[in-house]
Amino acid sequence: MKKKRHKTTHEENLDRLSRLEGQIRGVRRMVEEGAYCIDIITQIQAVRSALGAVGLRILHKHMDHCVADALRSRSAKEAEVKIRELMDVLKRQSS
Amino acid sequence: MKKKRHKTTHEENLDRLSRLEGQIRGVRRMVEEGAYCIDIITQIQAVRSALGAVGLRILHKHMDHCVADALRSRSAKEAEVKIRELMDVLKRQSS
Amino acid sequence: MKKKRHKTTHEENLDRLSRLEGQIRGVRRMVEEGAYCIDIITQIQAVRSALGAVGLRILHKHMDHCVADALRSRSAKEAEVKIRELMDVLKRQSS
Amino acid sequence: MKKKRHKTTHEENLDRLSRLEGQIRGVRRMVEEGAYCIDIITQIQAVRSALGAVGLRILHKHMDHCVADALRSRSAKEAEVKIRELMDVLKRQSS
Fold first, then answer.
1. Using an 8 Å Cβ cutoff, are C23 and C47 in contact?
2. Domain enclosing residue A67, as ranges
3. What is the CA radius of gyration of chain C?
4. How many CA atoms lie within 13 Å of D47's alpha carbon, on the beta-carbon side?
5. Largest Cα span, chain B
6. Phi then psi for D49, rounded to 5 degrees?
7. How far apart are CA D94 and CA B52, in angstroms?
8. Residue to test with chain C: of D58, D60, D94, most C Cβ within 10 A
9. What's the CA gap between A73 and D76, in Å, rounded?
10. Which pLDDT does position C39 carry in this prediction?
């Protein structure tokens, strides 16, 4: 029996993005076919929420790598640049 | 000279959704090619924000129609159902 | 035996806002006393979320009244103004 | 002439939180006095947005300290705990 190969975060993100592409296509079809507005909006909210989840996963991976790099390099200057980048992302998120 | 035809909200929404589909494909390509995480996240935020804008346009159209219908039918019961639907959408949005 | 008086939405909102005032005071005390940043942020998120819930309750009441008025007056013009106001609120919310 | 003392982030946050307490009191007064719903909601949105800004400032300070500590201690284990805490905050934020 073949064991199911463990998916990396990278592959999982690609799968999720493919699925999201299909979901947007689905939303377009709903608009084309004159689906009920509230149903379209509900579907749009689901896509946005799934996109946000992919974003958070990428952010998590990014922070893991950043901190690993910072620990290796011990460069306070580089760490500061990374924090500023991160804060810019978070400001846009919550504005 | 041919005058550019005025686009309806409906057509504009379809165009925007097609573009968003392409943008998600772009995000996937960024992930595949190992683009910088912060750039990927920034792009994801742009897509989410554009999706939110399409959602608001559809919501606006929906409210225009609902109110027109309510004014025509003068049915308080029907209006109540519509308001409850709308509040459910808004609760999900802000939670 | 005295029956507990049923609270109106109005009174409940006032109670919630008094409580939120106290919670903000609590956040300030946490900052003063040098509480752990993550705990302060978690508390701030709770206050924001509770504030959002009060906002939604007021919005719900507003829509009930608006629609009732629209049904009474049958004024499409007035309804349009109300919808525009509402959309401005929702745009700020989701931006 | 006395020079205005430079305010620390800590003092500024306390000032902002005091002001926010006053603003919530203002919202309560608006509700008491039967102000127009849309005006109340607009004011609530302003308070939420200002609260979010205080949260981001505290988060920024927190990250500066965390990274400084991580650089000092070079403890990958400790860094991991901090990242998990941070991700929990961000997940709640964007959910």
1. yes
2. 9-94
3. 19
4. 32
5. 57
6. -65, -40
7. 14
8. D58
9. 13
10. 96
Q: pLDDT (tens digit, 9 = 90+) per residue, C36-52?
A: 999 999 999 999 999 99
Q: Tell if the CB–CB gap between A87 and D52 is shorter than 8 Å.
A: no
Is the CB of residue C38 less than 8 Å from the CB of residue D85? yes
Does the beta-carbon distance from C71 to B70 stay under 8 Å?
Answer: yes
Q: Give the model confidence (pLDDT) of B28-67 as tens digits.
A: 999 999 999 999 999 999 999 999 999 999 999 998 888 7
**Residue D3 maps to a domain:** no
Distance between CA D5 and CA A87 in Å, rounded? 27
Total number of domains in chain A: 1
* Contact check, Cβ <8 Å, B92/A42: yes
Residue D1 domain flag: no
**How would DSSP label each residue in chain C?**
-PPPPPPPHHHHHHHHHHHHHHHHHHHHHHHHTT--HHHHHHHHHHHHHHHHHHHHHHHHHHHHHHHHHHHHH--HHHHHHHHHHHHHHHHHHH-
Within a domain: B2: no
pLDDT at C1 over 50: no
Q: pLDDT category, C4, cuts 50, 70, 90?
A: low
Cα–Cα distance measured from residue C91 to residue C85, given in angstroms and rounded to the nearest whole number: 10
Q: What band does D1 get if pLDDT is binned at 50, 70 and 90?
A: very low
What distance in Å separates residue B87's CA from the closest CA in chain C? 7
CA-to-CA distance for D83 and D66, rounded, in angstroms? 9
Measured between alpha carbons, how far is B62 from A31 in angstroms, rounded to an integer?
12
Q: Does residue D85 sit within a domain?
A: yes
What is the tens place of the pLDDT at every residue in A12-46?
A: 999 999 999 999 999 999 999 999 999 999 999 99
Q: For C40, which of D32, D48, D58 is closest by C-beta distance?
A: D58
Identify the CATH number of the domain in which residue A34 sits.
Answer: 1.20.58.1000
